[in-house]
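Aim 2, interim progress: modelling of the 5-O-phosphono-beta-D-ribofuranosylamine-bound target.
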Amino acid sequence: MAAKKRIGILISGRGSNMLSLIAAAREADYPAEIVCVLSNRPGAEGLARASAAGIATQAIDHKAFDTREAFEEKLDAALRAANVDIVACAGFMRKMTAGFVERWRDRMLNIHPSLLPAFKGLDTHERALAAGVKLAGCTVHIVRPELDAGPIIAQAAVPVLPDDTAAALAARVLEAEHLLYPHALSLIAAGRAAIEGEQVKIAQVPVNQAIPLYWPPLS
Ligand code: GRF
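Predicted structure of the complex, ligand included:
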């Protein structure tokens, strides 16, 4: 097997997606290893969870820096010090400058809890319910300077149920996130996903599994 890609995860909060990546990367045949978890919030619950899982962590408090660039300089230095190949944002709640994003061009991933390009930004589940969509979901994409934009690697769709609250929908989507993110990262790390302009082309997709999802069901 080719050398495993070295992954740095960026978080700001509870880190449940981070844990799903850590768990996936424990498998011997997973093409990536998690080498560090960095948070802009020193109190992020995910930092303790990563430490408990035996992963090196570092808090880089954005409030300790005068400018966004100075904060990102430190973040970038920590990623490079750990020889990170690919950055995986997992609930990282800081806007990034175009300069930082470009330094990691095509090597930085993010997960967003909607079927992009719908419902970018915050409060996605509330807005999905207000719009009355029947399918919601999540997206893993390559990070570009515009918020929640960039080449899409993989998506998962979940039904919206008649009595859904935003919390109920968020929980259903989160369950899908925990499967989708390790899958999407493995496609990139294994070299099965080629980024061509603003599209991601995936090799060896089992097209015989392309089954439409109808919601409400046809019958
Ligand atoms: C997830 O819903 C993710 O899609 C979004 O922020 C949330 C982070 O949750 N970007 P967690 O910290 O991974 O539990």
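The pocket of 5-O-phosphono-beta-D-ribofuranosylamine is lined by residues 11, 13-18, 46, 90-91, 111-113, 174, 177 (CB under 6 Å). The chain is about 30% helix and 25% strand.
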